[in-house]
Amino acid sequence: MKHIARKRFGQHFLTDTGVIDAIVRAIDPRPGQPMVEIGPGLAALTQPLVERLGRLTVIELDRDLAARLRDHGQLDVVESDVLQVDFSALRASASGPLRVVGNLPYNISTPILFHLLEHVAAVQDQHFMLQKEVIDRMVAAPATADYGRLSVMLQWRYAMENVLFVPPEAFDPPPRVDSAVVRMLPLAEPPVLDRRHLAELVQVAFSQRRKLLRHTLGKWLEQRQAGGNFDLQRRAEEVPVAEYVALAQATQA
Ligand SMILES: C[S@@+](CC[C@H](N)C(=O)[O-])C[C@H]1O[C@@H](n2cnc3c(N)ncnc32)[C@H](O)[C@@H]1O
Questions:
Q1: Which sequence spans correspond to the domains of the chain?
Q2: SS3 sequence, 45-108?
Q3: In CATH, what class is 7-186?
Q4: Which PANTHER family match (predicted)?
């Protein structure tokens, strides 16, 4: 029976075989690698991936789609909201760190990225299709309009690159926005850091983008009697990730 795309699940199914091939090539799946696909949908990526891997774990929230996928002999189907999935537990029962992939539901793409950040130690790499505008913000350099909280909160932990542009016509139904594929590699030697403390600091810094940091972060640092030589005569978007990290390390309890 034909599946009717469900808007509430962010369902836009890939149909362009050239784009599907290009994504699979960018992922470069090898036999036996432990891989998890988020939101397999009608299996546009799932099928070419599992043909190369042999086995694949998929996480799908839509009950009807999960039921179809269970008929496929090479898939381990987790019928769940991905935000409830314990990736560290999946890693514990796999033969190595996980490769995580997916054409993500755009309405919850940022929560998914932050959920995976909690399980980063379980992950080898991530390849995600996302709204292009979100990827632009993820990979943005300081002193650009796209540089913000998302850039800092991901760049301190991952090396990231935009690997493919994907136009709306590659999907059925087409989304209203351009898409792209991002590659995310956890840094081999990440800074030792309390992520929640960095998140608080960055939130304060970017709370008023246009103002100098002395109006925002200045007060926050004063309360902590810290930040002695940190230059507050700048805007939040001018501060490189490494400086935010160093300030978080210097001010955390
Ligand atoms: C953009 S579609 C991609 C479908 C397919 N991978 C493709 O490329 O054609 C997103 C998929 O994620 C599923 N999904 C939506 N919300 C989800 C959630 N919270 N947890 C797991 N899967 C979800 C949808 O049902 C849908 O299959």
A1: 7-186, 195-251
A2: CHHHHHHHHCCEEEEECCHHHHHHHHCCCCEEEEECCHHHCCHHHHHHCCCCCEEEEEECCHHH
A3: alpha beta
A4: DIMETHYLADENOSINE TRANSFERASE, DIMETHYLADENOSINE TRANSFERASE-RELATED
The ipTM (two decimal places) reads 0.99
Residue 158: pLDDT over 80: yes
From 3, 8, 11, 130, give the residue whose CB has the most ligand 1 atoms within 8 Å, as the site to mutate. 11
- Residue 39: CB within 6 Å of ligand 1? yes
Q: Which two tokens stand for residue 81?
A: 């909201």
Convert the pLDDT of each residue in 184-223 to its tens digit: 999 999 999 999 999 999 999 999 988 999 999 998 998 8
Answer whether residue 150 shows pLDDT above 80: yes
195-251: CATH topology is Helicase, Ruva Protein; domain 3 (1.10.8)
Q: How many CA atoms lie within 13 A of 150 on its CB side?
A: 17
Long-range contacts of 157-162 (CB under 8 A, 24+ apart): 157/117, 157/120, 157/186, 157/187, 157/190, 157/195, 158/120, 158/126, 158/184, 158/185, 158/186, 158/187, 159/184, 159/185, 159/187, 160/184, 160/185, 162/132, 162/135, 162/136
